[in-house]
Design brief:
298 residues; 3-deoxy-manno-octulosonate cytidylyltransferase; binds 2-acetamido-2-deoxy-beta-D-glucopyranose; transferase; alpha/beta; single chain; nine-stranded mixed sheet; Spore Coat Polysaccharide Biosynthesis Protein SpsA, Chain A; EC 2.7.7.38; globular; membrane
Length: 298
């Protein structure tokens, strides 16, 4: 993955606003930073807070837009396998499992060596599936990372970045990632935009373009942010999150993550350099395959 340049704001304001994660370099960046950073880092580790981490890849067979999506071959390998292989490369995860309601998916995953947890068909979304999987595992994890199975090119560094962000922000219950929004995606409601404060906490997510320029047009100079479908939760929070009743903004925008903010919880956001290649439709498969050929990814 390419590595983001630090923004001028993050280098001048120090630990509080250093929210841009440098991919692979996160550890090095912490070590090289001011003493406060290092001391803080040691404190988290000595307290062993949030040190046990599980990555869960929720995968369902039924889908209105793309039936059997997790099993679709991408350059000859099932998409779920590609996601799993990338996830296994993340260094912060103690355990990786696939959570599914479908025996075909389960069988495929066991075939390439993944641990599988069967979850109920009634799970309404990935978050609920993760929560059920966690309960079924019956082990204690401090952090759960929800890795969407439809991003087969997810960089392990992004997974690690999201985990470290949550470990580094004890006041947050949730962490996620954003990347630069491409101008052509500015008005696409399927591309979720995000705004953050100086400390790297989410202010709001929207399907509309935020912030909205006074001129009514897309500002070609504004660094708009696109939300990526990876999130990690404090596991205690995950156990109450699905039970929290839907909130007005969540319902209006149809964005699950707004429930977190509307209930007053804090969400840490990292910025990464990532070309999103989510697979939502059968047409996306061809697109991602040609891109992989171009980049020599096998
Ligand atoms: C809106 O966008 C324009 C560029 O298109 C920019 O010059 C201006 O500063 C932005 N903000 C406002 C309030 O107009
Ligand atoms: C899952 O989806 C349902 C229905 O859209 C929603 O009410 C619920 O809040 C979602 N779960 C979480 C954890 O947000």
């Amino acid at each position: 993955m390419a590595i983001c340049a630090p923004s001028s704001d993050s280098s001048s304001a120090g630990s509080k606003s250093g929210w841009i994660v440098h991919g692979l370099l996160l550890g090095a960046a912490i070590a090289a930073a001011a003493g406060a950073h290092v001391a803080l880092g040691l404190r988290w580790f000595s307290r062993k807070s949030r040190s046990k981490v599980i990555g869960i890849i929720p995968a369902r067979f039924a889908s209105s837009r793309f039936e059997g999506k997790p099993l679709v071959p991408i350059l000859g390998k099932p998409m779920i396998q590609r996601t799993w292989e990338r996830t296994k490369l993340a260094s912060t995860l103690d355990h990786v499992v696939v959570a599914t309601d479908d025996e075909r998916i389960a069988e495929c995953c066991r075939g390439f060596g993944a641990d599988v947890i069967m979850t109920a068909e009634s799970c309404r979304n990935g978050t609920e599936r993760c929560n059920e999987a966690l309960k079924k595992l019956g082990k204690n994890y401090d952090i759960v990372v929800n890795i969407q199975g439809d991003e087969p090119l997810i960089e392990p560094e992004i997974i690690d970045g999201v985990v470290k962000a949550l470990q580094g922000a004890p006041d947050a219950v949730f962490s996620t990632a954003v990347t630069s929004l491409k101008p052509e995606d500015a008005l696409d409601p399927n591309r979720v935009k995000c705004i953050v404060n100086h400390h790297g906490y989410a202010i709001y997510f929207s399907r509309g373009l935020i912030p909205f320029n006074k001129s009514g047009k897309v500002n070609p100079h504004f660094p708009y942010l696109l939300h990526l479908g990876i999130q990690s939760y404090d596991s205690k929070f995950l156990s109450i999150y699905p039970e929290l009743p839907p909130t007005p903004l969540q319902l209006e925008e149809d964005l699950e993550q707004l429930k977190v903010l509307e209930n007053g919880y804090k969400m840490k956001v990292i910025k990464v350099d990532h070309d999103a290649h989510g697979v939502d439709t059968p047409e996306d498969v061809e697109r991602i395959e040609s891109l992989m050929r171009e980049r020599n990814i096998s």
